Structure formats: structure tokens, C-alpha cells
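Check the record.
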Amino acid sequence: MNNEKVITIISCGKRKIWDKSPNIGQTLAKDAYISNYFKLCKKYAEKFSDKWFILSAKYGFIVPDFVISSNYNVKLDEIKDRLSFIEKLKEQAEKFGLQNYDKVVVLTGKDYFNVIKRSLQSFGLEICNPLEGLGIGDRQKLLKKFNNNENKDYTFDTN
């Protein structure tokens, strides 16, 4: 059994609970994003990680129980000062104690991965993007495979 302390970071999503239920009000981040891809990433993160986070272009790193008050639509490519955003992520990472973990599994697209990598590089963590280069359909198939496996040590081969 592997004793590594693992964090998984997943990206938020465009589809949110308010798209279906506009009057729902405040919602926990883990329930706010409703795309199939987000749900598969969330299930993986809950099963295989010691702790997991969502990366939001609006809020930065957020814990699953972070309360989102209403719908929003902020995209990473809309952030004008990318260096300030990366610095904000680094500060949040320190606050959340990410430097105390061994490995970060990132289940995001390339742009989000690059921002995460830049914000965490000084911590000396192993940072991997095991779904890199796969289309959304292949990503979902692979996540379903891992999520349905009974072995809790069944993780991505990142070597």
C-alpha cells in the first residue's frame, strides 16, 4: 500500500446548479458544478485522495464545502493579470497546507494545469496530469473505469 499523501485538484465547470434551478440560492462548491465530467472527477477525488480542491477562475482553490452564493461565469482566459492569479493560488495553497502533501493529481485541461503547476512548483510536490492529451470522451471513459474499480489503491499510472 502506498503511503503517499495525495491531493486531487479538479476544475470547476461552466454548467452549474443555477442553470437548472435558478432560485436554489447558496450551494456548496461540490454540488454547484453539475457537468458529467465534473461529477466523474469529483468521484475520483473523493475515492483516491486524502484531500481535494476545485480550481475556480473566480475564487482560486476552493474546498468542496466552500459556499458559492450565486451563479457566475468567469473563465481562466479572461483573467488579465495571470501572474497575480498564480500568486493568489500560491498563497491559498500555503494557507491550505498543500506543501504537506507528496503528490498532486490534476484533472483539468492544459491551461488550468499550467497555472496549477506554476503556483505549486516551489513546494517540491510531484504534480501530474494523468489525463493530459486525451479528449473529453476518453477522459470520461478512463475516470469511469477507475471510479468503478473496487480497489481503493487503483490510481493512474503516471510513470
Summary: The CA atoms of residues 55 and 61 lie 5 Å apart. Residues 82-96 form the longest helix (15 residues). The mean pLDDT is 88. Helices lie at 17-20, 29-32, 36-48, 82-96, 110-120, 136-148.
